[in-house]
Records
---
Amino acid sequence: MAPNASDDSATAADAEELRAARRRKAARYVVPATVVGVAAATIGLVPALADSGDPDLPKISAQELVEKIAASDVQQLSGTVKITTDLGLPDLGGLANSLGSAAGPSGSGDGSSADPSAKLTELASGTHTLRVAADGENKQKVSLLEDAAEYSLIHNGKDVWGYDSKSNSVFHTTASEREGKQKDELPATPKDLAEDALKAADKTTSITVEGTAQVAGRDAYRLVIKPKDENTTVGQITVAVDAKTGLPLKFTLTPASGGAAVVDAGFTQVSFARPAASTFDFTPPKGAKVEEGDAGDASKAPGHAEDFGKEQRKHLDKGSAELGKNGPEGLNVIGDGWDSIATFDTGGKGVPSGSEVGGDAGSFLDSLGDKVSGKFGEGTVFKTRLINALITDDGKVYVGAVTKDALVKAADAGK
């Protein structure tokens, strides 16, 4: 008996629907994979983009997680760190070009472009990719990847080398016993930043565990640090903590004003295997200009705990009164915690107006500053998305991770 025509039509329709369903299902996988692949090829962060979903981890209290960070003792690692800093500064435009020309070809004045201090300011804005490696206290390496060039800082035993491939210049110094410690020589990793933030954990701070995340292929807890002070410009800090090792894998600081993070530093690749010994070997290339530095210069390494993000980091520490030991003479700190304000007297006049300076420099000054007045007199507030500074017309300076109103109030109280 011949099959019914309507049955044939139904069968064909069912088959076509099945094929269509399969195509739709395949598209759900192929299209996102294609998009991710293009993005990954563009920015070179395949491992980070491959992470998805929140891992199911055992519950942990904030106190336990903080203790886990403190107990973390990772001695060997290698990986890639992406650091983005967005203080909201205006484009320097012609001013930057003028400064660059005045500084010479390397942009570092008379010094070597391989001197670590010459590279510090580059990490204060924009997005940068670092390759890092460590093998105990005496072997670390960090490489700042640039367009068609690379800057490397290598610590191997008593030697510290800086090498700038663009200018083929080398900076060499020796590390003292103190500077040879791993905590002083590693770059500004999420661990460095997280430990400083946790120092502000007092009655002015809320610390909670808010879910989980996956960073660089690792399961992590999300530790959230929120200031209770209303005058601070810090919104919150989120630290992704490796569930197994306790190592902070990602650090994100968002401002109270909202928007993009001010500081976002995280691993996109990480391995806890011992790096090859050759990773830390360095011999100056043929024809390279070698500059010898003082032993003390080794502490100027990019991301050193006392240098990288200095203005941001010092106000995360409730003991910021210690600044008085190394800061300008007569420096004092008003208050404590997140809304602390450092103040000192320059002994001179305030900042000239843009019209007085003229040119690109004058325009830059005007774009940064807001004229303010109060019982203290008059002055200018220079602002970023995190750090604000009031310079009065009689030369007094008030600076902190606080609002403009808080600075004016502090200046009024100081009269």
Note: The first strand starts at residue 76 and ends at 85.
---
Amino acid sequence: MVARIKCSTNIRKPYHYNDNKVREGDACLLAAENMLVQVDTHRDKAVLLLEKQVALRPDVKVNSVHISLNFSPDEQLTNEQMAQIARDYIEGIGFGNQPYLIYRHFDSGHPHCHIVTTNICLNKSRISLHQIGKLKSEPVRKELENKYGLIKAEGQNTKTSTINPFDASKVLYGKVATKQALSKVLNAVIPVYKYGSLAELNAVLGIYNVKAEQGNSGSRIEQNRGLVYRVLDHNGQCKGVPIKASLFSGKPTLLNLEKRFLANDVARSKYKDSLKSKIDIILKFKKCSSLRELQYHLKSQDIRLVPRVNENGIIYGLTYIDLKSKAVFNGSSLGKEYSAKAILERIHLTKIVNPDTGFEKTFPLGKGYPNELSKENNSNVGYERLDEKSALTLLMQYEYAATNVPYEWKKKKKRRKK
């Protein structure tokens, strides 16, 4: 069993987090202890009662306690067993006389429950939260493991080191253990694919319903240049708790990924012209009339086309993934004629459609494109029309090496002696 304690200044946040899970069918209320109201029939009054107790000590800023008790996926616990373990845990850490709510969640691959309570007592005293995890929680957790015969938490983290990277598949949130599923995907993608940026890496991870995030603008994660990995649902929305990059084997942190970006940019350069030729041939002969149709024909060549879509559902970029060579390119990395705006023009598309959501917006061809669509291609300079190229020319193109090789990696020419 693993216990996690989070203390905050707002009792409403943990309450509504769990209550919303219940409304969505992803959780159920196991018990409501020391509450003066019937929580099942007066759900809104429960948080008011907690707030009134918190208001007894307005001078105490940290007054909310949110605890999660996590059990091994191999353990089959009934609701009564889990509720009793939670009661014993709360009693052991000194919160037995406090009002608290116990919720069981079903949105993860392992059984777990959440407890919402406050450290403000009815007599206006305050339960100290200083080092509560080390001094109170850990001894109680180990005692409960022995009492109920639970699988011990120690030594469980070493299991992820034996993961076979070829077992990676789409991560289904709530169906499998999150960290183990993420580890499989990261081991199968990060050392194998040749990506040059975090956006290109995310295009590949998205195939497996995974995303790497640097945190919101101004957040502590972003300021410290951290990185977390999250699971996506079928709509591309983040689900569950993010897991820090440093907790995975191989340490896929932002610092280590940036080292790969430079090496990958050189390694993938020999595949650039081959990929461009395949795209050009499909555009030439398949007469695609929609982005979804273009994706279908590229998929037959083992190429995945991943559109990048903003919050309004408008496509502002494209990423190409060559599954054979494992090379990943943003449209702008291949050239302006492979950017989102240029590709939509080349297939004579007047309706810009997000293939995942079905959102579409009509614009006159050649003008009036939204600003988001022009991020990759701000130039109005025209590209060479595909109709002016012959198939033979495309097939016989010389695959030259990329010119953006870093100066330090270029071979120095020997100076001729005079």
Note: The CA atoms of residues 235 and 261 lie 28 Å apart.
---
Amino acid sequence: MTYEFLITSLVVILLPGTGVIYTLALGIGGGFRAGLLAAFGCTLGIVPHILASVVGLAALLHASALAFEVLRYIGVAYLLFIAWSLVKESKALDLRAEQAPAGKAFRIVRKGVLTNILNPKLSLFFLAFLPQFVPASAPGATAQMLFLGGVFMLLTFLVFALYAALAAGLRRQVLSRPKIMVWMQRSFAAALGLMGLRLALADR
């Protein structure tokens, strides 16, 4: 593992995406614990993409237009569903919920996992990213790629946990101004919807 890998990973992780928006939304709406659960779910959602890259499924997605398009539009539909849920459900960002019940905690994690699983760009990213730091001819290349993938996941969780903490810190200001919550809820919904449309219109 090199400093170049760590720096590149941090830059990629810090860039706002669907996982960041989901974590921020839950951190503001449900406090640090809810944001941390969202961060954990988003991190778990990276696992299939890393495994897919290592075993070559990402290469199949890259080569098969049909496989890529099917997965892409499933991801688009899910992002739009989350966006609609934020607008429709009054309790989607419940400011009074300091502690999430077990059932709700599971739903938060599940949504985080699905948010990242249903993003084929992640598989293509790891397909291009990991080999840059592990030559194919190197002994134990597969083990090294899995190790680097694990490091990337750890960095993702730490960064997202920081996002969750920052979001939870804004709850007091939001609680004292209820209209801000409505505005932020709609903003998160709009951001997720726009990302879904961007994914739908993006070139491979």
Note: The first helix runs from residue 3 to 14.
